[in-house]
Amino acid sequence: MTGPGAGFSAPGLLFAVLGAAALCVPFMTLAANRIVAGEGVMAWGVASLPVVLPGLAAIVAGLIMGLPAGRNSLRIAGAALGVGGLLWLLTQGASGLLAEAGDYARVSPSVGFWCLLVVFMLLMADALAAMAPGPLMRGAVLVGVLAVLGAILWSGVLSDLSVMQEHASRADAFGREFLRHLGLAFGSLAAAAVIGFPLGVLCHRLASLRGATLPVLSFLQTIPSLAMFGLMIPILGWVGANLPGARALGIAGIGFAPAFLALVLYSLLPVVGNTVAGLASAPPAALEAARGMGMTPLQRLLRVEFPLGLPIILTGLRIVLVQNIGLAVIAGLIGGGGFGTFVFQGLNQTATDLILLGALPTLALALTAAIVMDILVELTRKTPKDSA
Hints:
The chain is mainly α. α7 runs parallel beside α10. The chain is flat, with a radius of gyration of 25 Å. This is Glycine betaine uptake system permease protein YehY. It comes from Sulfitobacter dubius. It is found in: Cell membrane.
């Protein structure tokens, strides 16, 4: 999409304007300690001019490289260059600002950094979308981005940032809550699949069951997440107190069990609904041909209906996984663990960077899961002719 006779990409023009505006707001924040709000510092003031000039030049050049229409490789390179400029300013600014501050001083990215990061990420995503890469190429790009991000974090160049100092003081707890978050999100997905797939098949076969089940599952989706987690507390509290062996299995009013059960209940509608829709998407001609070949109902289900409906079924799993990665944060409010533990600790302490310690990996995990599931959905849609 281009401007009238200009040869510019309309999204590129928008990103350039937004990027220029983001340079006019504070890029970093310097605070006396981890709790106080701190003072904003502009991008050109985070260090001496000779130090910040390469980073500013890279950001401006990246925005300019994102302008031409149809030059998608150039636009991707511009986005990468811009992100490199952001990292340069961030690392040089962190060490420079802390050198003149007290022992308890903290430095953090501010609104300007986050806005510019979003602009360059959107620029890269827009260029990649215009190139229409296949699923395998998208997977390679994802692996490359994650590898670069991992290398940056592993190198320690960001260790002066407040959020990384929060991580350093809670490294063991972070690893433990990371595994707990994965257990909540992926475990509830697995449980919903075990329950939802057979239920979806039955609903596909029996219209009366479908008419009774889907409205109930839809009603569960309308319950706000906090209310759902709250409802689980008295129910599982009673189960843990009255059923022999329940507490030994970890079932109690607070903790992992109520959070897990709430996520499973939220997951059932997308799994069951998409299973029904996927199985119903099989063309009548294909089913008629299968019957003519003498296939039993089970054989038609496994060899015809399920393979043809697999993209829709996987789309339901994608919805569940991304949804549960986000909802698992609320589990921290009832002692369920996960990254929500840091989010609510940060809210209680008014420590913004502790909140980010829980929010940023949740966002990264959700984005990664969404991209991976999108790739799987597209791969299942490829026909033998497409694969040739």
